[in-house]
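Quick one: sequence plus pyridoxal-5'-phosphate SMILES, need structure tokens.
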Amino acid sequence: MAQPQSWEQRAQEYSMYGFTDLPSVHERGTVVLTHGEGPYVFDTNGRRYLDSNSGLWNMVAGFDHRGLIDAAKAQYERFPGYHAFFGRMSDQTVMLSEKLVEVSPFPRGKVFYTNSGSEANDTMVKMLWFLNRAEGRPQARKVLTRVNAYHGVTIASASMTGKPYNEVFGLPLDGFIHLTCPHYWREGRPGETEQEFTVRMAKELEDTIAREGADTIAAFVAEPVMGAGGVIPPSKGYFQAIQPILQRHGIPLIADEVICGFGRTGNTWGCETYDFVPDAIISSKNLTAGFFPMGAVILGPELSDRLSAAVEEIEEFPHGFTASGHPVGCAIALKAIDVVMNEGLAENVRRLAPRMEEGLRQIMQRSSNIGELRGVGYMWALEACLDPASKTPFDASLSVSERIANTCTDLGLICRPLGQSIVLCPPFILTEAQMDEMFEKLERALNKVFAEVA
Ligand SMILES: *Cc1c(COP(=O)(O)O)cnc(C)c1O
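Reply:
Sure thing.
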């Protein structure tokens, strides 16, 4: 009789993984998860892991938040699904849009819903292409982003993403231009101050606009803090340096707040933390605290007016997803915003962010192989380095960050390797004791791996 297959074997036989290093899965097997409690998840073998990545940045209220579960249940009872086409939409959609504009940095605005962050970025690009054509500027199609930016995986958002792995798809599409990553520690030149570096970033933008022609550019899109690029906060004064240049050339600044939005940096928005007001905001991930797939484009007043005028003219915006503005997603998002902003979650991030920074700084100081600690709020990265003084990385073939992350997993801590960095972005509910558990397991893993490779 055939042996019953394990969960690991069944997973590997029938399911595909996204963004997974296959050799390490073949060696280590698949972790199949069944449930969660607070910031912890449990696998089919009953092992518990502290998920210091909040799932994929999004499970900010943990894995069993009662209020969110109840909000979902109640809405499924009331009205389990509807669309937002043909002049109809659910009451929850109406309420969420009001709420999003209310909590946005905009005095007024309009919201369009998607199922993901990628689709929200593609939607933003289509909106700009649509309104530029309607305004008689069909050539204004180019999109400026930065190297290491992560904006998603659909065709436009993958083209916006500044990562080399998209070459396997023949992307980016033409007209998607990647500027230098504003990472002073890595990109700064010898002797260059951070202020001089920022000026150089602004000059590069100015030169790029001059070279390409301002009238061919539809937008500049940026995460306030780059997330999947390795938690890279902007260099000092970056947005203050670039925004006036964009404004002078009439190029909208779009903030991709999919990670930073709703509390990750300690404020409602990353743009608040970095003190700028964009022309539109892209939201997803935290929007529903990970309890429903949903994204949103939140347009500020000027883009709302221009898009509305363009739509009036053509009498339709021919775009939308079947589940755009799904009532259950909207009900969950309304609750998630309330939970994060009014039940002390964002407050917890603000209160404990200095403690998180300090704990990680001490780990860095006790190690000889951490080159940089960077981050803000509840998003941090430690960059492993063979020689921190000269910023010499480890040989890539050593897969140092993957080994650290795998060792953490063995110790019951989930964290993410990104390049040579280890990323920690725990749920906003993480307590002091849980933070100490994270520090302790992380340091044990770092010591073990550095002893093997350094
Ligand atoms: C995750 C992410 C996206 C893409 O969101 P998906 O829901 O995975 O499509 C876009 N932008 C940023 C900044 C992200 O972190």
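Residues 116-118, 121, 150-152, 223, 227-228, 256, 258-259, 284-285 surround pyridoxal-5'-phosphate (CB under 6 Å). The chain has two domains: 31-64+344-453, 69-342.
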